[in-house]
Amino acid sequence: MASESHFKESLHNLYLEDEKHHRNPSEVKMSQIVLPCHANHCGELSIGQLLKWMDCTACLSAERHAGCPCVTASVDDIYFKHTISVGQVVNIKAKVNRAFNSSMEVGIEVRCEDLYSGHHWSICQAFATFVAKHTDANKVQLKQVVPCTHQEHVEHSLAAERRRMRLIHHDIMQDLLNPKNFQRSVSEENLDEDEALPTERTRVESVELVLPPHANHQVNTFGGQIMAWMENVATIAASRLCNAHPTLRTIDMFHFRGPSQVGDRLILKAIVNNTFKNSMEVGVCAEAYYGDEPLRHINSAFMTFEVLDEKGRPRPLPPIKPEPQEGQRRYQEALARKKIRLDRKYIISCKQTEVPLSVPWDPSNQVYLSYNNVSALKMLAAKNNWDLSSKKNNVSLYTMEESQSLCFRVEFEMEIPAQRAFILLSDLGRRHEWDQHYTLCKLLIRVDEDDFIYQVVTPSISKGGKDQDFILLASRRPPCDSWDPYVIALRSVALPTHPCTEEFHRGEVVCAGFTIYEVSKSVSKISYYNQASPEVLPYISTDIAGLSSSFYSIFCACRQYLLDNIVSTSAFTPSTL
């Protein structure tokens, strides 16, 4: 047993050593020492300058992969954890996580280094989308990214889900910003007219002439330069409100609407939209024109600032008094964006210590809950420290202890097309046919064709105890390419229409579900995962200890269920009991 453990440890060390020496072919690094010319009057690196460096590094990475010029299409939310001082070094690393048709996702990591102490710390992480542009009229078809390391496999897999989220982000925002959906009006805020500051005093308008130094090698205005100019006017607007130096904390996801060239005049406008106790949202708009032509919309962004006291804590901010009509619209839209911002930050982060397991579900946060659901399962599946606990008739049970939680994986191969297994296992309404722990499964909401919310009832472990019920979000995803599995992810959510009742003890599922890989046209590898919560652990503890065969029986029943239904060609329709 000791020799087997030593062998596994040696293999794991070899794997880590290979990862350590692997260099992604699209990876680009930039290191810059912060000089006074890069800093503001507080001796801190200007975020605008940092954005320029980040965009440049990411663009070079995209072009290394594409082999042709690339332009910035969008940047996801950026959260800045710390400021950077003069004399410190900024280390930026960018690499292509995944390529689609003519676009690709580039991951950007920014770290700070203190040359005197040798300390390193994280500043931010960002994901940018770049589009490849051929010099001729032919459309670019990008080569696929081939992930090699554990981390690359994880990012490659999650990139598809992030892209799905980006594509519907605009529709979600438009729906949430619909005046019919606003829950509060300005009059309901009970503002103190004496304390409230008029937003008009924060309005900023500035013009920039695009010169050759501002252009990239394609003679378009450098995207990072536009972001730097936008950050500059936003900082001025925030400073006018608080009469102090503000610190930029977040930039919401934004898209470049069109290009700008050398010779253009860029009109940059900024205004404080709303304040929230310790933070404020500033809206920024960039428009361009040349000669007598009408203004072209280049970009809009929303930035969140804080004002820190001497101890680095956020200072309370005064309320604002919005202008009639347009000002009130911006004021209320900022309230809606704050909700989305919190949803995106905490739900997408998958940090269970910062957000309750059963996050309240509503249409505005559905896309973020689905992302969390799928990404959590993919990250759990990608872990490389699973231990084989037992194996019986080609059904393998793996376990993993991590962060004070017990995770398990049941895996087997069988003769069934992967797509057919995906369709059968996606329908939780039929799970009672093979899983004795599912006594009831009721479809509550069909969110869309890939996401469903169920109420699941499981029997009590103890005699005379209450049955348990779970409200589960089921998210299913077909593979985007040959590297991806079929995914069926499950996690708990909360529904206001289905609160806890006296009849059941409400349980929670942290992360569970299936991955299905196509081994061949007729053979699939099916893996079931569960990050055991206290409510789930009693059902599985004896099985993992090897004291019963019920676990094995359940997945034998699952295999038989798939074989019995292999010939059906009916499309997936979620069923209910």
TrEMBL record:
- What's the EC number here? 3.1.2.2
Domain START intervals:
386-545
Query: Pfam families given for it?
Result: 4HBT, START
Q: What is its main location?
A: cytoplasm
- Report the pathway entry: Lipid metabolism; fatty acid metabolism
Name a biological process GO annotation. acyl-CoA metabolic process
Give the enzyme class.
Answer: hydrolase
Per the record, the coiled-coil ranges are: none
Q: Which GO terms describe its cellular component?
A: cytosol; mitochondrial matrix
| Record CDD domains | BFIT_BACH
**Where found?**
Cytoplasm; Mitochondrion matrix
Q: Which Gene3D superfamilies match?
A: 3.30.530.20, Hotdog Thioesterase (3.10.129.10)
- Tell me which InterPro entries the record gives: Cytosol_ACT (IPR040170), HOTDOG_ACOT (IPR033120), HotDog_dom_sf (IPR029069), START-like_dom_sf (IPR023393), START_lipid-bd_dom (IPR002913), Thioestr_dom (IPR006683)
What catalytic activity is recorded? hexadecanoyl-CoA + H2O = hexadecanoate + CoA + H(+); butanoyl-CoA + H2O = butanoate + CoA + H(+); tetradecanoyl-CoA + H2O = tetradecanoate + CoA + H(+); dodecanoyl-CoA + H2O = dodecanoate + CoA + H(+)
What keywords are assigned to this protein? Answer: Cytoplasm, Fatty acid metabolism, Hydrolase, Lipid metabolism, Mitochondrion, Phosphoprotein, Repeat, Serine esterase, Transit peptide
Q: Does the keyword Phosphoprotein apply?
A: yes
Q: Name one GO molecular function term.
A: lipid binding
Could you tell me which residue ranges the HotDog ACOT-type domain spans?
24-136, 200-311
The superkingdom of the source organism is: Eukaryota
Q: Does the keyword Transit peptide apply?
A: yes
**Function, in words:** Has an acyl-CoA thioesterase activity with a preference for the long chain fatty acyl-CoA thioesters hexadecanoyl-CoA/palmitoyl-CoA and tetradecanoyl-CoA/myristoyl-CoA which are the main substrates in the mitochondrial beta-oxidation pathway.
Please state what the protein is called: Acyl-coenzyme A thioesterase 11
Q: Which organism is it from?
A: Cirrhinus molitorella
